[in-house]
Amino acid sequence: MEFEELQKIWDSQNNQYMYAFNQSALYNLIESKKKKAARITNLSELMHILVNMLAGVIYIVIIATMTKKNMFMYVIAAWMFAIALYVVINRMRRIKENKNFDISINGNLQHAISLTTYQANLSQAMRWNILPVAILVLVMVWDSGKSPLIIAALFICFLVAYLISTKDQNIYKARKRELKILQQKLESEA
Questions:
Q1: Does a structural domain hold residue 14?
Q2: Range 38-44 contact pairs with CB under 8 angstroms and sequence separation of 24 or more
Q3: Domain count, the chain
């Protein structure tokens, strides 16, 4: 909230100016942050569901067309479907919990904090998911007798994905911290 959005109010008891939040501007700010968090969360969940389901299907198709079966391909296909199911279940829980917030400045702020917390936790879970996926893929490629250069290139790709997800995680933590600070300011004003 900008300083210009504060209202100057004359306190007749103390004969001095006091400052108060512009309720409308505050509500609009919190509402926009809540909508942004909801939009990012929905997009992120749908992306994780789609990508993991698609990867699982691709592995199943590859397994069906291979003459020499690789046990690790079955494991990674099952893992991809399990991760998609995990995200679907958490999405349903989150949507159900969305009904617990009242329609007020405080309720919207609580909802926005809840969404950013959920998104940060989902991001962290998917970040840690890189480790088992990387291990399974690298073992699968190694077991199939591919070149060590391919294994090294895949390792570098997974490492870069992990580093990028770390930056993503920090963005969600910063958004959550910003909302918590706003919440503390509002509580101290009340």
A1: no
A2: 38/115, 40/119, 41/94, 41/115, 41/118, 41/119, 41/122, 44/119, 44/122, 44/123
A3: 1
